[in-house]
Amino acid sequence: MNTEDLKKLGLNDEQVKDVMALKGEAIKAEQAKQQATIDEITAERDSLNEQIAQRDTDIKALKKASGANEELSSKLSELQTKYDADTKALSETLATTKLNSAISEALGKTSARDPQDLKAFLNMDDIKLEEDGSIAGLNDQIKTLQESKAYLFNEGTQATYNPAGGSASSQSTNLAEAMKSKDFNFTEFLQSQQGE
């Protein structure tokens, strides 16, 4: 679907622009979702490869050290402690990666101009990934940012052009708003849109 196809359907330039903007937002949200999944899988793969490589090295060291039983028991105890610490660290890293992926996906669905810029304003300590996959604390922060830093969001509002010495159009340029008027005439609306 391109602009020429939409024009052939009878849409004016403004309507074509709106449709293409909506399509762009849908593509951006899908890209963010796919990137979040890729990041999560890559982090998991890398951590598993690190574990395998480290355990292979440890097994070789154990085979060399298996001469004395006491030394082996001590080495095993030491390695078990190390494995427990590594597993905990990897679990925390994986949880952080899942949280970041879920946040990136959720921000991709907002009207943010750039989700990564928006992420810099979030207080990550107040955001938690729930067992059901929902993100606690994110929506409240987004609402606060929409109020305090509205420039980060594309709200789709359009300022009416009012040249010096002229007057603003008495008819709304938004089709939905114009249709609410009692004396709405679709033909006149289209003519006024084409004349702008």
Write the layout of secondary structure elements.
Blueprint: H1 3-8, H2 13-65, H3 69-108, H4 115-119, E1 128-129, E2 135-136, H5 138-148, H6 175-179, H7 186-195
Antiparallel strand pairs: 1-2
Helix pairs in contact: 2-3
Can I get a quick summary?
The protein has 196 residues and is mainly α. 66% of the residues lie in helices and 2% in strands.
Please describe the structure with a list of short key phrases separated by commas or semicolons.
196 residues; mainly alpha; two-stranded antiparallel ribbon; 2 strands; 66% helix; 2% strand; elongated
DSSP strand tally: 2
Look at the structure and give the mean pLDDT.
Answer: 81
Rg over CA atoms, rounded to whole Å, is 28 Å
What can be said about the biggest beta sheet?
2 strands, antiparallel
Distance between the termini: 25 Å
Fraction of residues in helix: 55-70%
Structural class: mainly alpha
Read across the widest sheet, the strand sequence of neighbours is: 1-2
Oligomerization state of this entry?
single chain
In sequence order, what are the helices and strands, one letter per element? Answer: HHHHEEHHH
Shape: elongated
